[in-house]
Write a structure and sequence with these properties.
This protein is an all-alpha fold. The chain is 79% helix and 0% strand. It contains twelve helices and no strands. The model has no long low-confidence stretch (mean pLDDT 84).
Length: 233
């Protein structure tokens, strides 16, 4: 698993993708911080809140090559015959994507310290927000990785992944405006994005975190099953 992690993480920087992801995350988080700090608001968790939209657009590019690129280049069978389990392969790829994601969000750790020189901030609330956006990333990366395992085209993988994220986001918006108990119930069951926002509002509970980690584990498991199916195909 460690070897797969190293291979995948290095592959992000073998082309401009990894640098672009980090630059985009840093740029937009800096812009959000500048707007919030410039307004004099101590609610620096608003930066994390803003970054949720950015990661919805960026995460499909992180995950699009995870499995599909190996299939496209016909090297997946080489990996499957290596002395590592399918679970180890999938976890190595998942953790590499999470590592890039967290590196991209590293600037979020700096902003509260800057604000604390000028005013008092709620450190616990900001910690909740950071936990929330990491959990959100785990959910989206696991979903994107599963979709990547279903196709040989990274472009198709990215497009489908983005469509899924957009559908979940729009469902939450529509359910909030529509007077429908069914839509509200469905949204409550599937909307990991709405659960993320509870972290930045300070009303999160353990159930939200357990839900997001469970969804991540489910899609990692489904990816393992998908890759194993390829082994015997």
């Amino acid at each position: 698993m460690v070897a797969v992690f190293k291979r995948e993480f290095k592959s992000y920087f073998a082309n401009p993708l990894g640098f672009i992801i980090i630059a985009v995350f840093t740029l937009f988080s800096g812009m959000a911080f500048g707007m919030i700090f410039g307004s004099g608001s101590p609610a620096v968790q608003g930066v994390v809140n803003f970054m949720a939209t950015v990661v919805i657009f960026a995460t499909p590019f992180i995950t699009m090559r995870l499995i599909s690129e190996d299939r496209r280049q016909k090297v997946d069978q080489v990996l499957l015959t290596a002395p590592v389990t399918v679970t180890g392969i999938v976890l190595g790829k998942f953790l590499a994507a999470m590592a890039l994601y967290c590196v991209g969000l590293a600037s979020l750790v700096i902003y509260p310290f800057i604000v604390s020189f000028y005013t008092t901030i709620d450190w616990l609330l900001y910690l909740y927000a950071l936990i929330g956006i990491i959990a959100l990333g785990a959910v989206m990366i696991s979903i994107g990785m599963f979709i990547s395992s279903l196709t040989e085209s990274p472009v198709v993988s990215a497009a489908i992944t983005f469509a899924v994220f957009l559908a979940v986001m729009l469902l939450g918006s529509y359910a909030a405006s529509a007077d429908s108990a069914v839509l509200t119930a469905v949204n409550g069951a599937v909307s990991f994005i709405d659960r993320f926002y509870s972290f930045t509002s300070g009303i999160s509970d353990l159930a939200d975190l357990v839900y997001m980690l469970s969804v991540s584990a489910l899609f990692v498991f489904l990816t393992v099953r998908s890759v194993e199916r390829r082994r015997w195909a």
